[in-house]
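Archive entry. Fields below.
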Amino acid sequence: MAEFLMPQLGADMSVGKLLGWRKKVGDRVQRGDIIADVETDKADIEVEVFATGTIEKILVQPGEKVPVGTALAIISEEGPSPGAGPVPPSPSPEHAAPTIPSPAPLIPTAPAPPAGGPRVHISPVARKLAADLGINPARLSGTGPGGRITLEDVQHAAQARTAEAAPEEKIDRAARMRQAIATAMARSKREIPHYYLSTEIDMSRSLDWLTGENLKRSVEDRLVYGVLLLKAVALALRKVPELNALWIEGKATPRPDVHLGVAISLRDGGLVAPALHHADRRSLDELMRDFRDVVQRARAGSLRSSELSDPTITVTSLGEQGVETVFGVIYPPQVALVGFGKIAERPWSSEGQIVSRPVITATLSADHRVSDGHRGGLFLVAVNQLLQKPEEL
Amino acid sequence: MTKEQIRETVFRVLGQIAPEANLNHLKPDRSIRDQMDLDSMDLLNFVVGLHKELQVEIPESDYPKLSTLNGCFDYLASRKNAA
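PREDICTED_STRUCTURE:
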């Protein structure tokens, strides 16, 4: 028996609205199937299931908005019936749970009545209703005898909340996305002691190789230099694996797989950073296909849940806008972010000569709880070395 | 292929890349990229789209000729009608 939960699609998500089910009670589902659509502040997401079995019960109906972690459906996981084919591979540990455990709720939901603290005068039936509705009785002013909070007070509070929530629906997605980003970034700056490193990388070898390579390729198969940067980052993480980790419940948990989050700005404002899965093991061609696909889907608003919940580190490239250096803010619970500026022709010293070279500035923002500048430096050096041998990427 | 057909194709492909953009506001002699806030992935998809629709090979070294609408019309007309 497994619960299919409202997933946490990034650190900035606290609630999600179920838009619809793609399956019904009694349907068989396979791990990885898209079975529901969920609206977050950032985008509409296709949600994959992490269990294989039969949908036994649907608990949340389309249109309902529920907190992350709420059970949406119950899936019975009895093994496949005899002769139904090979047993599906058991889920890998990193996929066993659809949510990345978050150390603390991002947007505090109304807290349960405090265990200690001043005693709230409230009738038992009102207390139960308040708990059910997630209303904090301590914030209510009672109208009962001696200021006691009555059932009616709780009902009024619930109505007021619904009335407040209604206009919120009308705030456009751009504003909600701004709020979601604000929450995640404020948490990052509050909790993560960032350190920053930067290095300049001569891109002439990479760009020359790319020009030659693209000359041989038809339009559809051409590569962009950004893919070389992504692959170099993914491979360099093997040398400094502690940067590829998540900070969960007060400690760093190294991740076995490299799922690169790529920051994609959306034209109507805001950004998303979906994962390119197993980026270190993909060829440049595969990575290019994945990258193009995810950019297109991000802008069309059809990302999948695993893409938003899986990133283990983020890469942002702001060179397109012409800036030289990115001082990035880490996206919790990740512990590092790699930034690239634009490629610019610069004077460069090579073998005693000053020559002109295309140069890019790579930066690392990293969590000092998890790594130190020495290791961070080794990482940037490794990125540089990898970009000097593009044919091996 | 007429200039009008090429024009329609260019607008159709741009529309697929940035459905929210108002293409009628584009100034024909200014950078498409700047006016529509396109990135390199969008530009690649633009070239791929033109290639698919018009069956012209566009080498990477010719990308700068596609930077404005007028540039696109001229370049594609010469490629298409030379072929």
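CURATOR_NOTE: The interface with chain A takes residues 18, 20-21, 37, 39-41, 44-45, 47-48, 51, 57-60 of chain B (CB under 8 Å).
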